[in-house]
Write a structure and sequence with these properties.
The complex is a heterodimer of chains A (112) and B (112). Chain A has 112 residues and is mainly beta. Chain A is built from no helices and eleven strands. In chain B, strand 5 and strand 6 (54-57) form a beta hairpin. Classes of the chains: A mainly beta (112), B mainly beta (112).
């Protein structure tokens, strides 16, 4: 059974810092991995999608990497801003099914 | 604007009542999903549909029902058989089963 964990559970940093969020999954047979952002009481906003054949994806200040063999993905946020404060979720799609398995999220606070 | 619309934003249910949560998308996506989110837990899949008139149970389908009569609509009914329905419900869609998923803004259901 696929299990997804995210470390740390919460993170507080001063504005301007570069930071890394971690996502680990137990079954390397994934089709893709997607990173989301969730603001309190809101839905999920898609940030980056990495296919299993890719090593990384970039969008603006965000960079996501994928090491499928070791079951890990990282989300790198450069020059963090208070507006980046949110919960960040990673989710993996199984090879043999069509559905995501979500991690519990990392709650990020960027202090001005 | 293209997107996923969930309604209502807040819903209150009395004991023994069935309630229906609406999810509509104008993205022309084939696949649609319903997830439940509880504090401190990752998102869990309730039901998903890959195509009109077809849907599959997810990990926690007991006490829920769905229909997929139209491509753009995937309503979720929370029945009286669901013993702990208070949660945040999220609807998502994607072009196909392995592509990027997009989420609505959620419905918060509370039992009163």
């Amino acid at each position: 059974k696929q299990e997804v964990t995210q470390i740390p559970a919460a993170l507080s940093v001063p504005e301007g810092e570069n930071l890394v969020l971690n996502c680990s999954f137990t079954d390397s047979a994934i089709y893709n991995l997607q990173w989301f952002r969730q603001d309190p009481g809101k839905g999920l906003t898609s940030l980056l999608l990495i296919q299993s054949s890719q090593r990384e994806q970039t969008s603006g200040r965000l960079n996501a990497s994928l090491d499928k063999s070791s079951g890990r993905s990282t989300l790198y946020i450069a020059a963090s801003q208070p507006g980046d404060s949110a919960t960040y979720l990673c989710a993996v799609r199984r090879n043999y099914g069509q559905n995501f398995v979500f991690g519990p999220g990392t709650r990020l606070s960027v202090l001005p | 604007d293209g997107g996923i619309t969930q309604s209502p934003k807040y819903l209150f249910r009395k004991e023994g009542q069935n309630v229906t949560l609406s999810c509509e998308q104008n993205l022309n996506h084939d696949a649609m999903y319903w997830y439940r989110q509880d504090p401190g837990q990752g998102l869990r899949l309730i039901y998903y549909s890959q195509i009109v008139n077809d849907f599959q149970k997810g990990d926690i389908a007991e006490g829920y029902s769905v229909s997929r009569e139209k491509k753009e609509s995937f309503p979720l009914t929370v029945t009286s058989a669901q013993k702990n329905p208070t949660a945040f419900y999220l609807c998502a869609s994607s072009i196909g089963g392995h592509t990027e998923a997009f989420f609505g803004q959620g419905t918060r259901l509370t039992v009163v």
